[in-house]
Specification:
Aminopeptidase, alpha+beta, about 30% helix
Length: about 150
Amino acid sequence: MHLKRLGIDDKEIIKDVFVSVFTKEPWNDDWSDGEQLDMYITDLIGQGYSLTYGLYDGGELIGISMGYIKHWYTGTEYIINELCIRTERQGAGAGTFFISEMEKAIKELGLRQIFLLTDKDVPAYDFYRKNGFVEVTNIASFAKMI
C-alpha cells in the first residue's frame, strides 16, 4: 500500500470511493443527486488550501482523506472533512496504515496537528481513538436548519 496526494483531476475516482462507503451502513447518506455530489467533492478537493490524500493498494484507490490546511495560532493544521476506507477493506489495518502515512506526509509539510469531527455512534469513533486521536470535550458543535 502507498499514499498519494490527490487533486481535482482525481475527482471521479474520489467520488466513486466516497459514494461506495457513505451510502452504506452506518451512514446511509443519500448522494443520488449527482450535481450536489460533484459540487461537494469540488468544494473539498478543488480549493487552493485543499489537501487530499489517497491510499492505494497496487493500482486500486482504497481510501481517501479530503480536507484543508488551516493556519492557527498553535500551528498549521490538517482539518479532515471526510476520511474513509472502502467498506470491504475495513478492519484489516488499511485505515491505521493510512493515518500513519498521512501523519508522516503532513509533518513533512510543516503541519502540527490533525483535526476532525465524527459521530460518537459509528465505528469511526473507536477507530480514531485507537489511532491516538483525543476527544476534544470543550468544543460544541452547533447546527440550525433554516
